[in-house]
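ESCALATION

Customer reports they have been waiting on this structure for their group meeting. Please prioritize. Original submission:
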Amino acid sequence: MNEESEKAAIAVVHAFTDSFNAQDHERHAETLNYPHIRLANGRFTRIENAEIFIKGSKRGESILEQEGWHHTTLASLNVVHSGNDKVHIALRNDRCHADGSVYHSFDTLWIATLVEGHWGIQFRSSFLHA
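Update from on-call: job pushed to the front of the queue and completed.
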């Protein structure tokens, strides 16, 4: 295990969540490394760059609004493996209404990578709608 890598990866997880909660799409895109891969609902999605991610993130705002989303909290965060340039992180996310009540919890596995001096989330596998 690599403590320095773990600290950097955990910091980027928190930056991801903070920027998602702020719906700051540009800052949110900066928390990723590209190409970014996501496995959800039985499909792999490959996002080539920040510009494409930002467009998709903006489109997702209306879906969040429809479900009554106000913010997401990290219910748990556990580093599974870590090395010099990669960290596997198991998370449980809670989606919350404005009053703080949780309306949806889901497990997800993220891989943070160090690419050209930048720590970012490069892979997410979520049970968002399971």
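Sent to customer with the following note: The first strand starts at residue 32 and ends at 40.
Escalation resolved.
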